[in-house]
């Protein structure tokens, strides 16, 4: 009977877990619909900004005008600066599979890469999970914000110090890492060099128009455009990461629910076998007692 009681308690516990994971999946599904729509709208603007910067960068590079337009398009003037900002996004909450692990692994690889070059690394983190991981391991976190509720003003303020420090010559690179939303089943890791603007992979990028900027101060316009690009990229990474987080959690909770239901099925079989065994033993004892009384 003791074994039956234990199995019954386990069944109750696992059934409760199954109900919780199923509810969490439903919640993530609803949240994903809203986050996915916002991510799609924001991606269109982010892509448009990127296209403009790609075209400008290639024209500047073609005419060798990177020095005139400032160091945001070239890192030549920063070769002696050994400090890099690594900004990355994780979730505030867990139970989303390997979502955070992918980002953390990518950041760890970047840290290892720059440490070998004897760089000073400044970590700036959006999301409690990433902050907990690196703080626990003794890394110095320069800045931290929550990633649960993306806000443009907060994102712009968060990354503004990195832009200022890059302009002042305190840092030589600003890198942004986040695990983004590709579709409901796949999350895609993004590692983006924000500053200087990377044109190393744009050699075959087509340029069909001439650069024509008004008013007469193109440097001021480009500085403003680059600032907007970096700020919005930070904001988009928060939105994109949030959509991917809900997608990953939805999948994780679906898998957890299936596993819990399988455990319930297995425990039910064990419980029924144990109950049948207990009934059979009782019957044997009764029959044996009757036979002994004859």
TrEMBL record:
Q: Where in the cell is it found?
A: Membrane
Transmembrane as a keyword of this entry, yes or no, is: no
GO molecular-function terms, A-Z: hydrolase activity; proton-transporting ATP synthase activity, rotational mechanism
Give the matching Gene3D superfamilies.
3.40.1380.10, ATP synthase, gamma subunit, helix hairpin domain
Q: Which Pfam families does the protein's record reference? A: ATP-synt
Topological category with respect to the lipid bilayer: Peripheral membrane protein
Give, as one word, the top-level EC class: hydrolase
Q: What keywords are annotated for this sequence in UniProt?
A: ATP synthesis, CF(1), Hydrogen ion transport, Hydrolase, Ion transport, Membrane, Transport
- Give a Gene Ontology cellular component term annotated to this protein: proton-transporting ATP synthase complex
- Presence of the UniProt keyword Cytoplasm in the record: no
Q: What is its EC number?
A: 3.6.3.14
Record's NCBIfam families? ATPsyn_F1gamma
Similarity remark: Belongs to the ATPase gamma chain family.
Concerning PANTHER family, the annotation shows: ATP SYNTHASE GAMMA CHAIN, ATP SYNTHASE SUBUNIT GAMMA, MITOCHONDRIAL
* Name of the protein in its database record: ATP synthase gamma chain
Naturally occurring in which organism (per UniProt): hydrothermal vent metagenome
């Amino acid at each position: 009977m003791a074994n039956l009681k234990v199995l019954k308690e386990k069944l109750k516990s696992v059934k409760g877990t199954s109900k919780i994971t199923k509810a969490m999946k439903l919640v993530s599904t609803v949240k994903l619909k809203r986050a996915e729509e916002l991510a799609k709208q924001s991606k269109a603007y982010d892509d448009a900004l990127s296209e403009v910067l790609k075209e400008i960068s290639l024209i500047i590079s073609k005419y060798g005008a990177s020095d005139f337009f400032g160091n945001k398009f070239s890192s030549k003037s920063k070769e002696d600066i050994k400090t890099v900002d690594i900004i990355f996004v994780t979730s505030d909450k867990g139970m989303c599979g390997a979502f955070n692990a992918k980002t953390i692994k990518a950041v760890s690889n970047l840290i290892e890469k720059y440490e070998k070059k004897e760089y000073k690394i400044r970590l700036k983190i959006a999301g409690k999970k990433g902050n907990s991981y690196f703080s626990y391991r003794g890394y110095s976190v320069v800045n931290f914000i929550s990633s649960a509720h993306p806000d443009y003003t907060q994102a712009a303020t968060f990354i503004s110090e990195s832009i200022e420090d890059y302009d002042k010559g305190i840092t030589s690179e600003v890198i942004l890492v986040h695990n983004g939303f590709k579709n409901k089943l796949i999350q895609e890791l993004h590692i983006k060099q924000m500053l200087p603007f990377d044109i190393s992979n744009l050699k075959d990028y087509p340029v069909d128009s001439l650069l024509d900027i008004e008013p007469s101060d193109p440097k001021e316009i480009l500085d403003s455009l680059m600032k907007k690009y970096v700020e919005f990229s930070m904001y988009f990474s928060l939105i994109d990461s949030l959509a991917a987080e809900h997608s990953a959690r939805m999948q994780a909770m679906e898998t957890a629910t299936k596993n819990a239901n399988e455990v319930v099925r297995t425990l039910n079989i064990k419980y029924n076998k144990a109950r049948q065994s207990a009934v059979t033993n009782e019957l044997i004892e009764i029959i044996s007692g009757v036979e002994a009384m004859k």
